[in-house]
């Protein structure tokens, strides 16, 4: 029987009120917004909390996508659907649309939030990989004020974050750089499922060479992984199939998959190799296309292929 243990319910009216409740109730309390990960764990008695603090009334403080000249800020209560439908995110970071359309189903995307996804710290979580790929920073607020934590340091282990007692995640910040683009792909057993393996990439161009690149992985280690080895290997080099293959090999050697019901460790390494090459290829094509689009007068081309750099899309599926 899937029934949670008894718990009390509180409804926060402001960020300060929520933090005050966390301070008073201690580690027996947990914040809840969408609840799509927390409540099933409570029903299975894998997580037990004496208090749930509902923060859905904090939309005025925590639900936004703010575009600034050098960064985009997303509030922790921003829903998956809002990130999926955001034109600003799609134009600057297309990796968001790639990932969001593969997260669960419309019901979950309507209620689930950025903060809930990051604070769940599930090793297979899509948005954690997106934030790692984009080099995000997390804003954490407590009674003593705010602090900024790099995404690489936000997750301390499976289901463990840098958010301390009487603290809450309030925002994620994403640096904006010119001449870049991004992409995300994952292999799943069925639509909307947790990933068997996934990869995200962000690439910035300097003329015809790669000025910088980042790759993030999910479901193949204890937490979402960033791979600085790939960044070092790609900087200053011409994009090519050989380079994408090299990056895929680095990713496969660097990840730490385990054999489980979703697949063997060897199979997951194969997926990482192929998915890393795909997302780098797509990111470069998008960056080239965006640069061309910005240099051509509006309406000069109605060819849909121009949006993908005039190159064919890589075939889907784990076999590639």
Short description:
About 35% of the residues lie in helices and about 25% in strands. It has about 325 residues and is of the alpha+beta class.
Molecular structure report:
With 320 residues, the chain is of the alpha+beta class. The chain is 36% helix and 25% strand. It is built from 13 helices and 14 strands. It has helices at residues 15-25, 38-43, 59-62, 80-85, 87-92, 95-100, 106-111, 114-120, 126-133, 151-154, 228-234, 241-254, 265-295; strands at residues 8-11, 29-32, 51-54, 65-68, 71-75, 137-142, 145-150, 155-157, 160-161, 167-175, 180-188, 195-206, 209-218, 225-226. It has a five-stranded antiparallel β-sheet with strand order 4-5-10-6-7. Strands 11-12-13-14 form a four-stranded antiparallel β-sheet. The protein is globular and about 55 Å long.
- Unreliable segments of 5+ consecutive residues: 298-320
Report the order of strands and helices: EHEHEHEEHHHHHHEEHEEEEEEEHHH
N- and C-termini, Cα separation: 42 Å
Total beta strands: 14
Alpha-beta classification: alpha+beta
- Based on CA atoms alone, the radius of gyration comes out at 20 Å
Estimated helix fraction: 25-40%
Number of helices: 13
Largest sheet: 5 strands, antiparallel
Overall mean pLDDT score? Answer: 90
Strand order of the largest sheet: 4-5-10-6-7
Strand content: 25-35%
Shape: globular
